[in-house]
Amino acid sequence: MTMALSSSFYSSLFTPTSTVTCARTTPPHTCLPSASYIPHKHSKREFPLPAVASVPYQPINLEYLEAEFSGHGVTFEGVGDSCIAKMELKNGSIVTMMLPSGLITSYKAPMWHGGKMELLHTAVSEGESGDAIIQGGVSLNFNFQTDDDGEEISWSPSSWVLHKIKGNAKESIRVELLNRASDDKIGLKYIVTLEEDALSSKLEISNKKSLPLQMTGCILSHLTVSSPEATYAIGLLRSNYCIMPLFESEFSLSPLESGQDSGFGKLQNLPIIKQLFQNLGTKNQSAGAGENQRSSEEMDEEMEEEVDDYKKLSKKTSLVYTNSPRSFTVIDRGRRNSVTVGRNGFDEMYLFSPGSEVEIYSKYSYICVGQAAILKPILLGPKDVWKGGQYIHNPNL
């Protein structure tokens, strides 16, 4: 079932999949999620991925949120131990976000014809244990790695605490979420801003460690379309790209059936794929220039140049662009709609299309755009602060 998430649907189906481990406190936002580091251990798979920390969700005190943060154009609705935060402007723009996961499930924007249109694609399905599996929307998918006394440590943020809300329903609404590692040495701020014609997601990372910090991943957006057959990406001409396996995360919506080849087997021998996973597991950040040069040459060998400025997304596609423009336009002829997607801070852009084999207006009628650090990790020096993000612009007003 594909839909903008509604409270009635959640009330009947949604059961948090994470175990709550701390009692309610007042105010609850003073109790930040307690993430524990897990040492990196190579698995026996051909491409060992970093281990990530499992962060339990904190219970939500709905009465406190309503008393503390209402009045800026944001309302809250409880869903079990989680809640939905709804941001609404007077011009008709509406965004819903799940807390504490930070997943943006809906962005309804006013159109030129006077109505509203859902720009994000979210699907809800029932898991094996009867709980609801939520996929799609806009999500943060990042992994942080560093060394601690010679041991490689990996951590992924998955639970956020509402920190501040600014603005008003007439002009813009800004919601700030916080997360931090268990030792308080990695601080994250996630800022979601709804304006009359745009939705932006920004990430601010503070490395308080005395050692370098490496970040990989992306801000992944599922844009709903009538069908990939009727969808085009405009403005990517002459950008370099390489073919990549499907980027999978907790919230990514994959059209692959169970047991189907995910693409890793077919692409496992490409030098650029090997380089990707070598980067994820690298401990020595002071490798010689010769080694870095060879890696760069290997990556260049797998690069291709985009030759279509009006790229039709009807073919199944999973690409990473390395020098694409800071923004490009997605046109959906089926819905007579277009959006502009842009980024800052990130050097790479991920583009995925499930292809035109999916049914029109179906669960898989979407494309994915990710502002990314996949091929080349972002490195933060000791005491450094990094900022980056994306925006989805609605030009239809």
Key terms:
single chain; 397 residues; mainly beta; Beta-galactosidase, Chain A, domain 5; nine-stranded antiparallel beta sheet; 5 helices; 11% helix; 42% strand; disordered N terminus; glucose-6-phosphate 1-epimerase activity; Gal_mutarotase_sf_dom; carbohydrate binding
Describe the structure.
The protein is mainly beta and 397 residues long. The chain has a single domain (7-393), classed as Beta-galactosidase, Chain A, domain 5, CATH 2.70.98. It is 11% helix and 42% strand. It contains 5 helices and 25 strands. The strands form 4 sheets. It has a 9-stranded antiparallel beta sheet with strand order 1-10-9-15-24-23-20-17-18, covered by helices on one side. The chain has a 9-stranded antiparallel beta sheet with strand order 11-12-13-14-25-22-21-16-19, with no helix packed on it. It is globular and about 50 Å long. Mean pLDDT is 77; it is low at 1-57 and 257-294.
Concise synopsis of the structure shown:
The chain is mainly beta and 397 residues long.
Q: Span from first to last CA? A: 29 Å
Q: Provide the β-strand percentage band.
A: 35-45%
Q: Provide the residue-averaged pLDDT.
A: 77
Backbone structural class: mainly beta
What's the order of the H and E elements? HEHEEEEEEEEEEEEEEEEHHHEEEEEEEE
How would you write the strand order of the largest sheet? 1-10-9-15-24-23-20-17-18
- CATH 2nd-level architecture: Distorted Sandwich
Radius of gyration: 21 Å
Report low-confidence residues grouped into runs of 5 or more.
Answer: 1-57, 257-294
The fold-level CATH name is Beta-galactosidase, Chain A, domain 5
Helical segment tally? 5
